[in-house]
């Protein structure tokens, strides 16, 4: 199936089929890849210099896992970010070559400046026992299964030019692994399975995102028609004529914003999984943040004591004999009560004492690193759950516990710069290489007429504002769904009509994303568990 063939059997072959990259594009892409590989390889080798592993197997496993994780980000780039460039290409605001390079560059920047919060947020959805044992066969089966399942579904929907959500695909894969992990356990006990709260949230987004995009973009277009008496804005571009400067500036600005936000948000998902891979294969180098030295450890111990005192004010009951196992149950069941707090306080005291005995995280011996990291991770997750619980905690104690959680996260939830560079390059190159299929669908196959300047601007503005709102308020929306349905909304508002075969296929892809990715990941996890 060629790039220009629609799922709709269109009457006219897309002019983008004959679009070829500028020869300098290949030179630029090759240069970026070479520089990125040298930079990432040098820093990876430097990090691994502290590892005394003599077997070659962990390094082979590390290489394969990194390639798969970066492959997911590459596919994510040409699958999701193509939505950002469709409107600027079809409104003649930017040439296709310039648009995809521009979008790829701002995806790259978005990844580099990202905080990492989303990266570890996606990790927290995974079964806790697999996170704590990520270096085991089950841990690697988990990472490989969810990444391969996400890549398969993303490639399938991309092949047919369907702009489905990569985020939903990855979360569906995580749910599939969690469900199969629970089914494979003896009597289904002692394991964490699917986070049904998250599943409900994603289900809501599948309904909410298209409605938000469709109605908001349609309304914005109607308002623009009423307030802006410029007929040319509401007609399709003539030949290669560019839109008026101000509308062109708006379209380029929104394309930039969507691309940057996509990089800073979606790029982090691959980072979190890469860090799990690194921790599982070479824990000596990556289990703990080795840049935390004596003064940092002294502060950590002091804040730990304050946090232990704060937790003690609300604790009910006695301290369990095994605080570690008790806190695992808290995270596994995703619930905190006053009776849970003695275990968290006790584990806090134990971690502080062990950390203080080494004076610096760089001096923690290899055989103790994973255990200390796991305990820090468990305490951090239990504090996250505590902050969302109904337990009434005084403002001062909340601040103390928040500071303690930050100290824990600084020690365990860090992302080396070379990982960001590798993900940024994969995402940016994906944007520049595989954009055509999704762009053709958004620009030509949703409506019956060519995209006008005002339609493109309305859909893109809604998408950009939606990303901002989602980041600020945690709204359950998909930018991919918002932009695609936004284009459909502008077509209806303009009475241009829709190509219903495309709309039907889009809806089916969106509805099937979660169940298909759940089945794929669950099946792959079962298969890999039997092999590894």
Number of helices: 21
Please state the CA-atom Rg, rounded to the nearest Å. Answer: 25 Å
Task: Name the helicity range.
Answer: over 70%
Percent of residues in β-strands: under 5%
Distance linking N and C termini: 36 Å
Largest sheet features: none
Number of DSSP strands? Answer: 0
| H and E order | HHHHHHHHHHHHHHHHHHHHH
Global mean pLDDT: 84
Q: Unreliable stretches, pLDDT < 50, 5 or more residues?
A: 1-13
Class by helix and strand content?
Answer: mainly alpha
The gross shape turns out to be: globular
Number of domains: 2
Write the layout of secondary structure elements.
Layout: H1 23-48, H2 57-80, H3 82-90, H4 96-112, H5 117-123, H6 128-132, H7 137-159, H8 166-184, H9 196-227, H10 245-281, H11 283-286, H12 294-312, H13 323-333, H14 341-358, H15 366-387, H16 395-412, H17 417-433, H18 436-445, H19 453-473, H20 479-493, H21 500-531
Helix pairs in contact: 1-17, 2-7, 2-10, 2-17, 3-4, 3-10, 3-18, 3-19, 4-10, 4-17, 5-10, 7-8, 7-21, 8-21, 9-19, 9-20, 10-17, 10-19, 12-14, 12-16, 13-14, 13-15, 14-15, 15-16, 19-20
3D structure, described in words:
The structure is a single chain. By secondary structure, the protein is an all-alpha fold. The protein has two domains: 32-284 and 416-531, no CATH class; 290-412, no CATH class. Helices cover 73% and strands 0% of the residues. The chain contains 21 helices and no strands. It has helices spanning 23-48, 57-80, 82-90, 96-112, 117-123, 128-132, 137-159, 166-184, 196-227, 245-281, 283-286, 294-312, 323-333, 341-358, 366-387, 395-412, 417-433, 436-445, 453-473, 479-493, 500-531. α3 packs antiparallel against α4 (96-112) and α13 packs across α14 (341-358). The radius of gyration is 25 Å and the shape is globular. The two termini are 36 Å apart. The model is unreliable at 1-13 (pLDDT under 50).
